[in-house]
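Bench log, entry 3. Co-assembly request; chain sequences pasted below exactly as received.
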Amino acid sequence: MFKKLSFSTLGSAFLLLALSTVAYAAEETAIAGLRYFAISVLAAGAPVGFAAFGCGLGMGNAIRGGLEGIARNPEASGKVTVTMLIGLALIEALTIYALVIALILIYAHPQSATIAALFAH
Amino acid sequence: MEHPILFLPALFDAIGLGHFAHQCPHVIYSWFVMLFLIVCGFLATKGISMVPTKWQNVFEVVIGGLEDFTVDITGEDGRRFFPILATVFIYIFVQNLIGLMPGLLPPTANLNTNLSMAIVVFIMTHVIGVMTHGPKYIKQFTGPIWWLAPLLLVLETIGHLARVMSLSIRLFGNMMGKELVLLILFVLAGAYFAPFPMLVLGLLVCFIQAFVFYLLSTMYFTLALEEAH
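Structure output for the full assembly:
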């Protein structure tokens, strides 16, 4: 319990420190305009990692259930395998949602023209 | 990151419709898949007989297996909706497979193709519900307790709309991600056969994603067919 608490406070302190360097840097208008794109790239990359982490945990559970079922009853291995694969595809879809948002931020950057115009003058 | 060369738009360039071809290559490749499947169907039923020969045999295995699997899930009532489900599966599967060949682009890597198929499945679900239950179909959205009905109506509507989004974006994300990874690996280390493991994984993903789209559509049809809880 103590270990979990200290780990989470350490982790959040580190994250806060990393993000605060963005605010404390001295910036001109052009760099301020570019910060939007820099942060959007960061926002595209980091969440896909978190999504993959959760997806890995979920898929591990699914495959564990599938293997236990096959080990217990090898005759039903066909049905168990099909159901397990379907479950894996559905869990993977959640990570794919995060990937799609990352792709949108990088390739189809919305509002970028508006924000670039805001910082242009 | 764009494709270095695409065969069919290059062909359209020669005809003179190059501008349209480079704007919408996905549409052209989906026409190509449609043409391919129509020709396959024509070849399979050309000399149809009780004792099947080569093409008919292959397609009997595929369609027979799919039909048994579908009726397994939906029950006997679902047999008349089998054609749209099998079309969805075979169409998406062939479209995904096309992406594995160099010079060809999978139409499912574009959100519009997937959204069109998801909207068709969504509309079909409600048509089936109204056909089977009549105006009592609305009871499926209101739930068992009558004074919770407004809340449940909103929740069920959002859930139904989320189905469309999840079906299309799941397929789009898988195919687009596969395309991007293949392109990047090819550019980075193409001479050392770096894309090869991704191509193997891509083959698995193509089949599984088509199967999951088909299976989810089947389950939505089943939910619309059965009695309200």
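The interface with chain B takes residues 85-86, 88-90, 92-93, 96-97, 99-100, 103 of chain A (CB under 8 Å). Chain A has one domain: 27-120.
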